[in-house]
Amino acid sequence: MKTGKKFARLEPMFGSLALIVAACFVLGIGWGYSAGKLTQMGPGYFPRIVGFALLGFGALSLYSDVTNPTVSNTRFEWRNLAFVCASILTFAALIDRAGLVPATFVSVALATIADSQNSVKSTLIYTLCVCLFAWGLFIHVLELPLSAFGRG
């Protein structure tokens, strides 16, 4: 009996379970801080939102894995990992120097390039929509002390 076949049915669930474990970790840390309220968020507000979102995505993904078992694709997509990591690092490098909108633009563009099926037009439309949403939410609605363009 091969051990590979023994765990083949469980393999697609590992990612979902990892999301649920990460959610519990984030919630556990965030719960020790005051949440505040929507207009005056405390230090525990955002970790709780992220934790519950991760928990929800993990639960939905696990449900999908259990109800629709599929043969797993054993080929790891290094290109996707590289572009998503580059996207995160680029955002971190640009947010203070270039501002929210350019950092978001470059970051989202890199992340969408990870999927080779995206066209230039769809990448541009999606990137502009996310930039507009980020600018409106973080600069105008939440009034965070971020510069939209360049150093504020």
UniProtKB/TrEMBL annotation:
Q: Which PROSITE patterns match?
A: PROKAR_LIPOPROTEIN (PS51257)
Which segments does the entry list as coiled coil? none
Going by the UniProt record, its keywords in alphabetical order are:
Membrane, Transmembrane, Transmembrane helix
Q: Where is the DUF1468 domain?
A: 17-146
UniProt keyword Iron present: no
User: Keyword Membrane, does the record have it?
Assistant: yes
Q: Which residues cross the membrane?
A: 12-33, 45-66, 78-95, 124-142
For this entry, the protein name equals Tripartite tricarboxylate transporter TctB family protein
**Whose protein is this, by species?**
Pacificibacter maritimus
